[in-house]
Amino acid sequence: MASPPNPAAGPTPQQIAAMQQQVALEAQKRGITPQEFQAQQRKALEEEARKAGLPLNEYINRIKQQAWENHQKQQQQMSQQQQQQANGQVAQGQPQVQGGQGQQVPIQPGAPDPKALAVAKWLRGQDLKTRTCILNGQRKDMFKIKRALRTLLSPAYASAQKKNPLLPSPPTTQQAAAELFKLLPLSLLALRVSKIDPHAGHDHAKPQKRVKGLWTVKIEQQQDISEDLHYVWLYEGPQWRMKLYAAGALAAIMTVVMFPLWPIKLRLGVWYLSMAFLGLIGLFFVMAIFRLILFCVTVVSMPRGLWLYPNLFEDVGFFDSFRPVWAWQEEKGKKGKKAKKPDSKVGKKGKKGKGEDGTGGNAPGMGELVTSEKVKSGHAAPQVEEVADD
């Protein structure tokens, strides 16, 4: 605690300037000069000192002592309030796990425990039937704690502990497995979460399209251990695949940047490949324009328009886009109707009644035989008409 001010010590120049400014403001409010205001204040102090039975100087020192003590009390109260608020924010912001005696132990961020890291690595490789969830806008793997406890009690963990000395001793009871699992939240490797509504409190309506089974979750402050609770993995495991992808991307970028240093033959081959690719793209645009012109010409000069590669822009595979080569535009009235099967009776009559002229029964006056081909895009297939010989 700071010592009280010495009455003999005079005020600093900054304090004198502040007091003079305050005196000027008070005098201006009362409509008098600063000298008149100081005289009034001195008379009031003399009267108060006379009532207290003290000399004026001693009375002024007493007032200074009381003001200093009040100032120190206010500073102590403010420091206590700030400390309480800081403690409250730490308790609210950090998750807590239940200790062995039922007390909540706050989780302190830092380097994970080697034993907890070994347990997390082993559990990550087991089948916990994880499901994807959304935590703070990121996709995470979520699992039920009962499956983790069963895995820790399984013989597989006992055999793994013999090979890896970092793993703690195998638990024999459910309570021991729960105590072993507590290493994960204490090292921030897995935390308890609960399902929330991501659109709660928003003014807009809930979207109609949502992925079934994809939860949006939040981290709970109390990291309890119960079979029905859900935990989310914060430990991603070894990131060797991401590192490999990053190294490959960096190598590809460096290869492209160092193109001027390539051998002449390699650069010439890349140039030929790029020209061939540009030629294919140009041929595709030419074909698209030509098929449109052909359709416009045939739709004017013929009953129906003719499409070249009718499935070119349809949602089909690459090879199906070029099948069939051509087809007639399907009429609007016949869209969606299935092609009728040829009458079997007509075929039988044709076999029985072969004409003398050897036309196979397709004599003049009989119906025309039309062949059709099914097209995926809805276009009518080319029709071939057979005309009887004269």
Strand content: 5-15%
Overall strand count: 12
The strands making up the biggest β-sheet line up spatially as: 3-4-8-5-6
Sheet of most strands: 5 strands, mixed, barrel
Shape: extended
Cα end-to-end separation: 128 Å
Question: What is the count of helical runs?
Answer: 11
Helix coverage percent of residues?
Answer: 40-55%
Structural class: alpha+beta
Give the helices and strands as they follow along the chain. Answer: HHHEEHEEHHHHEEEEHHEEHEE
Overall residue-averaged pLDDT value: 76
What is the C-alpha radius of gyration, as a whole number of Å?
Answer: 45 Å
What can you tell me about this protein's structure?
With 390 residues, this protein is α+β, with helices and mostly antiparallel strands. Helix content is 46%, strand content 12%. It has eleven helices and twelve strands. Strands 3-4-8-5-6 form a five-stranded mixed β-barrel. A three-stranded mixed beta sheet has the order 2-1-7, with no helix packed on it. It has a two-stranded antiparallel sheet with strand order 9-10. A hairpin with a 2-residue loop joins strand 3 and strand 4. Helix 1 crosses helix 2 and helix 5 packs across helix 7. The longest helix has 38 residues.
Summarize the entry for a quick read.
Helices cover 46% and strands 12% of the residues. It has 390 residues and is α+β, with helices and mostly antiparallel strands.
What does the secondary structure layout of this molecule look like, with pairings?
Blueprint: H1 13-30, H2 34-52, H3 56-93, E1 96-98, E2 104-106, H4 114-124, E3 131-135, E4 138-144, H5 145-152, H6 155-163, H7 174-181, H8 183-186, E5 190-196, E6 215-219, E7 222-223, E8 230-233, H9 240-257, H10 264-301, E9 306-308, E10 326-328, H11 344-352, E11 370-371, E12 384-385
Parallel strand pairs: 1-7, 3-6
Antiparallel strand pairs: 1-2, 3-4, 4-8, 5-6, 5-8, 9-10, 11-12
Helix pairs in contact: 1-2, 5-7
